[in-house]
Fold each of these.
Amino acid sequence: MVEVSELRKFDLFEAFSDAQLEKIAGVTQRKSYKANGRVYESGEPARYLFVVEKGLVSLREIKPEDQIGIAFEMRQRGELFGTACFTDQRFYTLTGVCLEDSDVLAVDADKLLEMCAADPELGYKLMKKITQVYFERYKVAKRQLHEMVKTPSIITALPG
C-alpha cells in the first residue's frame, strides 16, 4: 500500500477525492526494478496499471527469435502504462523494460475495476484521464507518421 500523498504527486490522480484516493492507495504497491529489469512480458495477463514514480521504462516488442526488439514508447515519471488491464483480452501486448533503476506504482487492476463498478464517479474520472492520456499519445503518433510520409522517398530497384 502507498500513501494518498504519494498518489497526489501525479496528474493521473488529481481529479479524485481523498476518499477515492484512499481506496486506490489501498490497492497500490510500489515495485522497484534494476536497469534492464522487466516489469512485464508481452502475452502475460494484465494484472496491474502502472505509473512511473522514478526512472524510465521502455515499452518494446521483443520476439524470442529476433535479436533486436523495437522500442515503441518510453514512460518516465508520472506517466502510466499497462492499460491492457482495461481491455477485454487483458494481456500485455508489449514488454516493459526498465532502462534505468526504476520505481513504479502498481495498481491492482481487478480491485480497481471492482471500485469503478461500485463507484461510477471514480470509474468515470479514471477513464476520462486515461482517455486524455491516450488522445495525446495518438496526436504524437499522428504527427510522427505525418513526418515520415510528408517527404516522399523514391526507392529504385537496380537491374540485375
Amino acid sequence: MTQSTEQGTIWLTQDAHDKLSAELENLKGPVRQEVIERIAAARDEGDLKENGGYHAAREEQGRVEGRIRQLEDMLRRAEIGETPPDDGVVEPGMIVTYKFVGDDDDEIESFLLGAREIEPEGLTVYSPQSPLGEAINGKKKGDTVAYEAPNGKTLEVVIVDAKPYTG
C-alpha cells in the first residue's frame, strides 16, 4: 500500500516496496528483453510500414518503458513506514468506511486512503490530497465532515469506520 505524506514523498509499507521493486526488476530484465526480441524479429520480416507485429511490439515497448520510469520515480521518492495503528483515526493507509449524510438508503462505501500507484483489486483508492481525503484525514470514527466536491457541491459524510489496510 502506498500513500503520499508530503509533496513528492510516497509512503510505502515494506511489503509494497518489495512488490514494486520485484515488478521493476521483472520489467527491466525479462519483459524488456522479450519486447526487444519481438521488435527485432518483426524488423527482420521486412517492410515496417505495414508490419502490425512491429508496431504492436513498439507500443508495448513504450508502455514497459513508461512503467519502468514510473516505478523508478516512485521508489526513489519512497519512504518505508509501518501500517498505521488501529485507533479509528483516519490517516493514509486506512480503509475508510463512510456514508453520506441524508442518504436515505444508508448505503455505506469503503475506500483506501492512499495513492493510486498500487490500487488493490476491488478497492478504490483516494488520495489524501483529494477533496474527500483532505476532509477526513485526521478525523475519527463517528465524525461528520463536509467537503466541496469537484462539481462545486458541498457534501457531508459520516465516518463509519477506519481500519488499517493490511493487504
